Amino acid sequence: MRAASETPTEPALPSPELLAERLLPWFDANNRTELPWRRPGTTAWGVLVSEVMSQQTQVARVAPVWEAWMERWPTPADLAAAPTADVLREWGRMGYPRRALRLQECARAIAEDHGGTVPADPAELEKLPGIGNYTAAAVAVFHYGGRHAVVDTNVRRVVARLGGRADAGTATTRADLAATASLLPEDAPTAARVSLALMELGALVCTARKTECAACPLSDACGFSGQEVPAGPSRKRQRYKGTNRHVRGEVMALLRDADGPVERARIDAVWHDARMVNEAVAQLIEDGLIGTDEAGRFELPSR
């Protein structure tokens, strides 16, 4: 019986050697090779583009856009030189189109400051426009094969459960990075494969809503094995129709499909609430996503 002064300790994480031994054969059998950016020969630029596109967007929606994008702009210099209006049109309805602008800014920085070569060092990658800690680590690991902690929602969840917790927090902390790094083998190429395998395990088996421990190669080394994910508050699907994001999307769709500049009356017709349309238009102009011509008509950026 535990003494009153004792506190329970969390289960220790498995050793990097055990993790690699169990996880990598599973990954070899379950790796989603149908994702186009995982094809042999994908460039560092292709990996970077896939990571930016996959932020807040399901990979099934990203895949066809990524393929069209890479066919049209296979190098940073190609995207850097493209008309911004074309970039926004190609982005389509993936949402959060500011990512497209940042990606073009990133391409220009790579072309101008790095001779068109995507840096391999995460510290250099983080200096690029729109590239944060996660994306920098992902490119350095998934393309260049470096040994760095790549921590997204899936990895954070898997590592938390290995340590006996039902889930992790909503944001990546230094503790999350340190815990993930402690699981990586010293050999960089092996560590890179382990990083991708941890992410795949969280996407396919150890998901947010349930744990499929019987299918998990780490079940006997996991501190949460056999336990059910505790019921939490029901997660209602976020409403989209009628939100500011919806109205912004309708304005962008109108301008993407237009053959030329659009009169204000057509903008006003995208939604019945004039206040929301005005707000959406003002935000899109501020974000650099739309502009006006000399006659005051609306269009995608011409730069």
Automatic annotation (TrEMBL):
Iron-sulfur found in the keyword field: yes
Keywords annotated in UniProt: 4Fe-4S, DNA damage, DNA repair, Glycosidase, Hydrolase, Iron, Iron-sulfur, Metal-binding
Pfam families documented for this protein: HHH, HhH-GPD
The keyword rRNA processing appears for this protein: no
InterPro entries, per the entry: DNA_glycosylase, HhH-GPD_domain, HhH_base_excis_C, HhH_motif, MIG/MutY
Domain of life (superkingdom): Bacteria
EC top class, as a word: hydrolase
Annotated HhH-GPD domain residues: 53-204
GO biological process, one term: base-excision repair
Family: Belongs to the Nth/MutY family.
Name under which the protein is recorded: Adenine DNA glycosylase
Organism, as annotated: Glycomyces artemisiae
